[in-house]
Amino acid sequence: MAQEYPHLKEHDWGMRNKRAGFFITLSVIGFVTAWYYNGIAVMKAQDYLEAWFGSEVDLVLSLDLTIVAIAGSAFMIFEAKRLGMKRVWLYLLLSGVTAMAATFPFFLAMRELKIQKNLARNS
Q1: Cβ(16)–Cβ(113) under 8 Å?
Q2: Tens digits of residue pLDDT in 30-59
Q3: Which of 2, 74, 92, 112 is 20 to 30 Å from 102 by CA-CA measure?
Q4: Using only C-alpha atoms, what is the Rg of the chain?
Q5: Could you tell me the pTM of the whole model?
């Protein structure tokens, strides 16, 4: 694994922890905002399909986010396999229950910690 990251040195490990913390913070924000606003939408009985595809502007934003979510999911699968991370399917499953805004940054945090662990093991 260290060969995959030859430019990283032991002093970079602290930066990995900071990055992981940053991604955890984004994950918490993504989780809270998704549940908060989804709760409001459910209480108001709002129509998700109309909101997502009600106008051309909504369609552009919806398709944009859908394409980003597909790319992010593919990245999670490929990167998890490359780094030897297990149960990546759980992140994808949870994104349907919580939000991709919560699970993708959480995956990135766990990725940083996995890289750090692999570097420590190989140094």
Answers
A1: yes
A2: 999 999 999 999 999 999 888 888 888 888
A3: 2
A4: 18
A5: 0.84
